[in-house]
Each structure stands twice: as C-alpha cells, then as structure tokens.
Amino acid sequence: MLVLLLLAASLYGGYQWWHDRSGAGMVDAGASPNGFVPVEMPTGAPRGAVLVLAPPNCPSEQAKRSEALVASLSRAGIPVRRGSSMAFDVVNPTREQREGVDRAVKVFQRGAPAVFVNGMAMSNPTPEQAIREYRRTKG
C-alpha cells in the first residue's frame, strides 16, 4: 500500500513540475478584464489597429470565426489588419520582452484567430471582447 501511495505522490509531483515548467499558466498572467494578456507585439503590427492572425483561404471553423470577427470589427469602425504568421525583431531583448514574446507565441499556438491589439493578445476572442479591448487600449 505504501508503494502505491509513493507512486501516486511521485506521479502527481511530476505532473505539477511539468505543468509549471511548460508555462501553461503564463498566458493568463496579467489578463485584462476582457481576457487579453500583455505581449510583445509582432513586427509590423499596426499601432491603433487590431491584428487578426488566421490561416488564409481556409474553410475551417477557425477561419470562419476569423472572418466573422474581422467583419464585426470593421462594422464597429475599428481598423483591422489580417495576417497568417508572426515574427519578432527584438535585439538584445530584456527579460520582460522575452516573456512578452513567449506569451504571444502561446496565444498564437492556442489557435485561430489570434488577435493582437495595442500590446495585448488573445486567442479566439468574441467580437465583443475584441471591440472592448481595442477601446480600452486605444489610449
């Protein structure tokens, strides 16, 4: 019985270590009221506009959600730019910048649409969340 208890405790400890190591909770760090997290913005991301990253010309459900989001933002008068990939051009990044890039990558990996707005990002937000975040960060 003691062996089973030790095995269970070891497995649980390993799971916790792996979970913490993988940064799984990092995407939720410092989330805004709308669910967006602070990130390092991709190179070329427009300031004062929403960047929506999604697969181009794709019939998938993710692509359909992306199209609906872009249409909603446009109807609300919010400038939108579409893209399908991201890159970062950060020379000698600070710890904060590296963490921001890591959070941006995690948002992107969660699936389309990945939405970036004024230093904040979220995967698959509702149109309402994206509109509120744009207005909140418009500055």
Description:
This protein has 139 residues and is of the alpha+beta class. The protein has a single domain (26-137), classed as 3-Layer(aba) Sandwich (Glutaredoxin). The chain is 44% helix and 13% strand. It contains 4 helices and 5 strands. The chain has helices at residues 2-21, 61-75, 95-109, 127-137, and strands at residues 37-38, 50-53, 80-83, 114-117, 120-123. The chain has a 5-stranded mixed β-sheet, with helices on both faces. The longest helix is centred in the first third of the chain and has 20 residues, at 2-21. The protein is globular and about 40 Å long. The N and C termini lie far apart (61 Å). The model is unreliable at 3-15 and 17-26 (pLDDT under 50).
Task: Tell me the layout of helices and strands.
Layout: H1 2-21, E1 37-38, E2 50-53, H2 61-75, E3 80-83, H3 95-109, E4 114-117, E5 120-123, H4 127-137
Parallel strand pairs: 2-3
Antiparallel strand pairs: 1-5, 2-4, 4-5
What is the total domain count? 1
If classified by CATH, what would the architecture be? Answer: 3-Layer(aba) Sandwich
Classification by helices and strands = alpha+beta
Distance between the termini: 61 Å
List low-pLDDT spans.
3-15, 17-26
Helix content: 40-55%
| Relevant CATH superfamily | Glutaredoxin
- What is the top-level CATH class? Alpha Beta
Mean pLDDT: 84
Shape: globular
CATH topology: Glutaredoxin
Radius of gyration: 18 Å
Q: How large a portion of the residues is in β-strands, by DSSP E? A: 5-15%
Major sheet: 5 strands, mixed
Q: What is the string of helix and strand elements?
A: HEEHEHEEH
